[in-house]
């Protein structure tokens, strides 16, 4: 097949891009609101939350760029397409989250050692609003990520969830500081420190599947079993010997060995191979190419 003829699904990438851009616009507003509220309200937990939103902007840009690159058609230099750009974007998100978590943790420890005033009560209202907005964004972007089968979009969704979690921990920390009064000022900073640990864990959840995809790890689920069942149902197929499945961006590639009668002609075996490929792509629309090897039974 000519690279230019490879099937692509630009509408899936477009949908992912739209959800990413929406998140970027929301993060700009939240970053400004949280930063000002943290500064005026004497809350480092809220300032740390604003910093996390700033990293959201950077990583969301990487996700957007990765999605646009992954949607490009195959060319002479990239005959299998540009799908690896998508999990690469997810890896960058995870690394940026780890960097933000380290910065928040270091500043939190410094603030715990340094006496400061109690945070202002109005910061709680700001954080409550942030938690609601970010959780709604997480659910919407997660739904898009599952629809388009994109680790980068799912990573972007988890970035929203981590922001909601940091805001929630900040809310708890500030509440403890306000209820406890003098002597409990550092509760706000302890909350920021706890939030950094949560961010590290969430970053790992993003990193693991993206790294697996970069390494051509078999996709989770029953892909292998389902593809073998589809192949065995094709007339002339006596069985399957090997089945390898890998994911590249929005696309899945299959290498399959099928067993047929050794008495068949080359043309008959060739026709069965095409029938197997067509059946798999019909049942599994996200499979963009199937390499079928014929084995005599």
From TrEMBL:
Q: Where are the transmembrane segments?
A: 21-40, 46-67, 88-106, 118-137, 164-184, 190-207
**Where can this protein be found?**
Membrane
Assigned GO CC terms: membrane
Tell me if Isomerase is a UniProt keyword of this record: no
Does the record's keyword annotation contain Transmembrane?
A: yes
Keywords recorded for this protein, A-Z: Membrane, Transmembrane, Transmembrane helix, Transport
One of its Pfam families is ZT_dimer
Q: How does it sit in the membrane?
A: Multi-pass membrane protein
Query: GO: which molecular function terms?
Result: monoatomic cation transmembrane transporter activity
Cation efflux protein cytoplasmic domain location, by residue?
219-296
Query: Per its UniProt entry, which superkingdom is the organism in?
Result: Bacteria
Q: Where is the Cation efflux protein transmembrane domain?
A: 23-215
Family under the similarity heading: Belongs to the cation diffusion facilitator (CDF) transporter (TC 2.A.4) family.
Q: What name does the UniProt record give this protein?
A: Cation-efflux pump
Q: Per the UniProt entry, what species is this protein from, by scientific name?
A: Arsenicibacter rosenii
Source species taxonomy: Bacteria, Pseudomonadati, Bacteroidota, Cytophagia, Cytophagales
């Amino acid at each position: 097949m000519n690279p230019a003829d490879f099937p692509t699904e630009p509408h899936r990438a477009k949908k992912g891009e739209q959800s990413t851009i929406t998140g970027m616009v929301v993060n700009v507003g939240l970053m400004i609101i949280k930063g000002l509220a943290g500064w005026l309200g004497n809350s480092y937990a809220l300032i740390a939350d604003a910093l996390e939103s700033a990293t959201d902007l950077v990583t969301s840009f990487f996700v957007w760029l990765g999605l646009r690159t992954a949607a490009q058609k195959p060319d002479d230099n990239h005959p299998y397409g540009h799908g690896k750009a998508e999990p690469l974007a997810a890896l960058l998100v995870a690394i940026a989250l780890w960097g933000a978590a380290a910065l928040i943790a270091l500043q939190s420890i410094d603030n715990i050692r340094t006496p400061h005033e109690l945070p202002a009560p109005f910061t709680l209202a700001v954080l409550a609003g942030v938690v609601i907005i970010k959780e709604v964004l997480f659910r919407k972007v997660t739904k898009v990520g599952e629809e388009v089968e994109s680790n980068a979009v799912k990573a972007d969704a988890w970035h929203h969830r981590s922001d909601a979690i940091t805001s929630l921990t900040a809310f708890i920390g500030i509440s403890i500081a306000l209820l406890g009064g003098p002597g409990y000022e550092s509760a706000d900073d302890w909350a920021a420190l706890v939030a950094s640990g949560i961010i590290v864990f969430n970053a790992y959840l993003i990193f693991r599947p993206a790294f697996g995809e970069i390494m051509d790890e078999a996709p989770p689920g029953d892909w292998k079993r389902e593809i073998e069942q589809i192949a065995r149902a094709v007339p002339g197929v006596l069985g399957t010997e090997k089945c390898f499945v890998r994911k590249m961006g929005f696309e899945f590639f299959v290498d399959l060995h099928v067993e047929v009668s050794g008495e068949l002609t080359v043309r008959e075996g060739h026709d069965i191979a095409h029938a197997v490929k067509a059946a798999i792509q019909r049942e599994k629309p996200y499979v963009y190419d199937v390499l079928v090897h014929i084995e005599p039974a």
